[in-house]
Amino acid sequence: MIYRILGLIVLFYFLLNLIGMRRKRILAPGVLVVYQTILVFIILSFLFPDGANRVANFFGITRGADFGIYSLSLFFLFLSFRLVRVSRSGQETTHRLVRELALKEIMVVRRLRT
Amino acid sequence: MIQIAFLIRSFNESVPIVQESLAALDAALASHADWEPTVILVDDGSRPPLNAGERTLGMNNADLIFIRHPIQLGPGAALETAMEFVRRGTVPVDVAATFDPDGQHDPIDLCGMIGELLSSCADPAHENIVLMGSRFLGKAPDMQPRRRRLLLAARWLIRFFYGYQLTDAHNGLRVFTRRALELIRLKSSDFSYASELLAELRKSGAEIREFPVTIRYTDYSRTKGQKDSNAFSILKEMLLRKLIP
Question: How close is the nearest chain B Cα to the Cα of A79, in Å?
Answer without folding.
Answer: 12
